[in-house]
């Protein structure tokens, strides 16, 4: 089938701001972008922004309704499932779980049962559909194991997605060292636990030549390590979620378990360093960290509550705040949301260009709405942004040239 969209504002590669035009797709592939002359069976965008579908790198659950609402067309599923994605058949099943209206790209578990001690069958999982390998929610303390993992991933040209917190320092901490943790009497760990973990894995990447992606880098010290590594032309990328961009540990006040996250919220100084890292290009990806939790996981004492937030529905609207506050351009925003995560996964998507996948969203950047935890489409409404007014709403989503929302 042929799809033609006209009268929109296009987000194009290399362009900071949207440009007037349209897009055409034949089947599941983009065939033309810019000035479209074929006016038969067209969709009139009526001035809406036409952008590549969001590629959400590192979700913990598949919530199709929530992803469609948020403009997410591809979701990279973390291996922390039950059972974990540490076996080819499980990876293959996960890869098909989104069909027909969502691309699901499983991340294979780096170690058996995510235990950190025995390497999983990485090559077989790649054959089964794994687009990258991940350590999951945990840090692998054994440096020898981590080096071998990187060597295998480098040989297979797979990215290794890493959680970065030195578990010897974090222990059972649920907060970052600081005044807020002290006031609340919460077990806390130094922010340097992240920087130490990042520094070790950068040196291992230097030894092995592996492509590594730090799923969340949230502290000033760790971001400095990443900057230096990039200046040395190492194949290193890093990401962050809106929570660590817009909230500091003050949000934990009154023991709000919706603000119980992993890694925990940081100081205001670190939060501002993250904003600066978005602006200067140090951070490559903004993802939702989508991890919906019900009352049985969140209506508990803060230390007992499960970490995580339902972030898919609010990812685009919150991230647009960076554009309105003049930290980045609209073009740069979609590098963070679509282009870069697609490159890390090695999929021909995330960009409005000829021969790329026809995953397209139309949205109004100024449309106002309010985030309500009890009205969310996800399996759980555990968002630390509950009650916040936002702007930016998706009107239409196309996956492979077919309208799905």
What secondary-structure arrangement, pairings included, does this model have?
Blueprint: E1 2-10, E2 19-26, E3 29-34, E4 42-44, E5 49-52, E6 54-59, H1 64-70, E7 72-77, H2 88-96, E8 103-109, H3 122-128, E9 132-134, H4 143-156, E10 160-162, H5 167-170, E11 175-176, H6 179-184, E12 188-189, H7 192-208, E13 212-214, H8 220-231, E14 236-240, H9 242-246, H10 268-280, E15 285-286, H11 295-298, H12 315-324, H13 330-345, E16 360-370, E17 389-399, E18 402-403
Parallel strand pairs: 1-4, 1-5, 6-7, 7-8, 8-9, 9-10, 10-13, 11-12, 13-14, 14-15
Antiparallel strand pairs: 1-2, 2-3, 5-16, 16-17, 17-18
Task: Describe this entry's structure for a reader.
This protein is an alpha/beta fold and 405 residues long. Helices cover 31% and strands 23% of the residues. It contains 13 helices and 18 strands. It has helices at residues 64-70, 88-96, 122-128, 143-156, 167-170, 179-184, 192-208, 220-231, 242-246, 268-280, 295-298, 315-324, 330-345; strands at 2-10, 19-26, 29-34, 42-44, 49-52, 54-59, 72-77, 103-109, 132-134, 160-162, 175-176, 188-189, 212-214, 236-240, 285-286, 360-370, 389-399, 402-403. The longest helix has 17 residues, at 192-208.
